[in-house]
Structures are given as C-alpha cells and as structure tokens.
Automatic annotation (TrEMBL):
Keywords: Aminotransferase, Cytoplasm, Glutamine amidotransferase, Repeat, Transferase. It comes from Phyllobacterium brassicacearum. It is found in: Cytoplasm. Homodimer. One of its GO terms (biological process) is protein N-linked glycosylation. This is Glutamine--fructose-6-phosphate aminotransferase [isomerizing]. Residues 43-182, 215-357 form the SIS domain. Catalyzes the first step in hexosamine metabolism, converting fructose-6P into glucosamine-6P using glutamine as a nitrogen source. One of its GO terms (cellular component) is cytosol. It comes from the Bacteria. The chain holds residues 241 to 607 of 607 of the full protein.
Amino acid sequence: FLVSKGNHRHFMEKEIHEQPEVISHTLAYYLDFSKGTIRAGSAPVDFAKIDRIAASACGTAYYAGLVGKYWFEHIARLPVDIDVASEFRYREMPLSKDSLALFVSQSGETADTLASLRYCKQQGLSIGTIVNVRESTMARESNTVFPTLAGPEVGVASTKAFTCQLSVLASLAVAAGKMRGTINEEEERQLVRELSEIPRYANQALRLEEQIETISRDLSQVKHVLYLGRGTSFPLALEGALKLKEISYIHAEGYAAGELKHGPIALIDESMPVIVIAPYDRWFEKTVSNMQEVAARGGKIILITDEKGAAASTLKTMHTIVLPNTPEIIAPIIYALPIQMLAYYTAVFMGTDVDQPRNLAKSVTVE
Ligand code: AGP
C-alpha cells in the first residue's frame, strides 16, 4: 500500500493530527455511544472468571500497557502484572490458567512480544492481543484480537497507535468492571460518555501546537531533560522521555514524581528542564510538592496541566501548557498529544530525520 504525507512535512506530524479521527473509529468499535454502554461482543473475554492479567509489550506499547494496569486495577479491581516482553519471556513467571495473557503491539511482529505470547500459549493461557495490524503474526496466533483502528503508522516514533492502544485499554477496563460488578450501569454510562469525549479534547490539545513549537525551540538547546508524573501520568513521563530521545537524540529520563528524592534530584540545576505532567487529579497536590523540590534547586519547570491545575499552582515555571479540564480516565490519552508534539518540534529544530531516526526500525523483529 502507499500512504502519503498529504500536506504534512513528516508522517509523524500527519499521524499526530490524525488522532482525533482514528481514536474515534477505535472507540466506536468498543463503545455504543447511543446506549452509553460497552458494545456487545467487542470484548469477548469473561473478565469475571479471570484472576489476573499477565501483560507484556515493548517500548511505547509497554507504556500503554502500564497505563492500562492503573485502569484495570482501579476500575475493575483486576490485578495486572506487566513487564517488558524481553524480560517477561525469560522470567519464568508462575502463571495461572485463570489469568489472561495480554499483549500490546502496533505491528504484531515484535520478536520479544511474539516470543512472550508463544510462551504463554505453551503454558495453556488464553491469549488476547491489542494490535494494529490485523493480518500480523500475533493477531493470527491469539485467541482474542482487540483491534486498534489507527490505520497504517509509518513514522518510527509511535503516536496514533499509542493513543488508540490506550483507548482500547480504557474500554476493556470498563468492560471488565462491568463484568466483575465493580461498576454499576450508571457508572458504565458515565465512563462511556467520558471516553466518547476523547476526540473533542484531542482536537483542543492539537490547538496548542504553536505554543509547543515555541517551547521546543528552547528544548532543542539542552542536553538532558527529565519527565515527571504520578499515577497514570507516570507512564506518560516514560513515554515522553522515550519519544524525545528517539527522534531528537536528546538524553531524557522519565521518573515517577515521588522517586525524584531517591536519586534523580541530584541532577537538578539551572540547566535542567523538568517536564512535569500533572492534570488536576487525585495525585496533583503530591506532584506539586515534588515540583517545589525542583524549583528550590533552580530547575526549569515546564508544566503540562489543565485549567484547574494552572489556577491551583503558584510555582514559577518556565512554561505552562494548559489543556482543558478533562475527566480523569481520559487524561493520559489527551496528555499524550503535547508530549508527542514537544518531541516532534524539538526534533524538527534539531534537523534530525524525524520519520526514520538513526539506528531504529519501525518493527523490531530480532531479539
Ligand atoms: C515507539 O516510538 C518505538 N519506536 C518502539 O518503542 C515501539 O513502540 C516498540 O518497538 C514496539 O513495537 P510494536 O508496538 O510494533 O510491538
């Protein structure tokens, strides 16, 4: 097939902008918006009979799974073990037949993820895979395929596949909560309504592009960047750091905000930008106190928050990116957009090959 860049400079830019549309397609597969329910048959797994999810994936897909862990545990009270596939496959983790083995992959061909899938299959587990390429090996070898409808992703740095994976994971967590009786009908309707709002919020996030381009000019001058987040923003911090290093080659690390004082705080000085991902949620106050520790040491803070968070924080920041106030469940999906755009524009300023960064392949089919 031939995919064109259209009017965009890079595939990555195009794929960032496609997100409201492809997320909307993906959600429509799992959710019945008119009834406000999970679509019958879209999650053909009996989550009530499952005692645990054993999940694994690589790179960005792994970070999606990590956000999913918070959702499954919070909404459906279903424990999730998650690991990078290259560790999982050799860990010989004791697996119960009542667990669901869950894999997340854009390509469906990543060698380590595929090996983990085959390992779980041998152990007699039921295999579910969230996958973008329907004809892929993983899709063929799974008992249940949970498709993402992102369309072909060409840029090596994953963007729309990630937010579609998150949309599927959130929908599945709601489906699991319903089957396990941890949410009632009214709560299901409320969550489905909130999920249906993702495309609208994502469009609003895209409007921050100009401001993010300006911030990226500053970022392209630095050597190191730290990303911090708590709760579901923690995997986002990891994803932000991965995206930046992949395409701009700037060294970046993502940390759980609470871990700052256990080591990385030693790195903070006037030359260190710290990107703090902090929607106004139940973790906000704690993250702000971590931000204070950064500010007290002269660290330059770039705060990504919402209107409520911007009003509540009195700290001096170098930049504040203000998103609309979002329901908690959809925040990680909306906050993915500014971190993708930050990485994208920084790479553009650095003049790197955004769609084909050095040393990287779109799909890693070797160990
Ligand atoms: C993301 O930007 C990366 N290029 C990479 O981490 C990727 O997500 C990983 O290799 C997994 O690929 P998959 O989703 O095709 O399995």
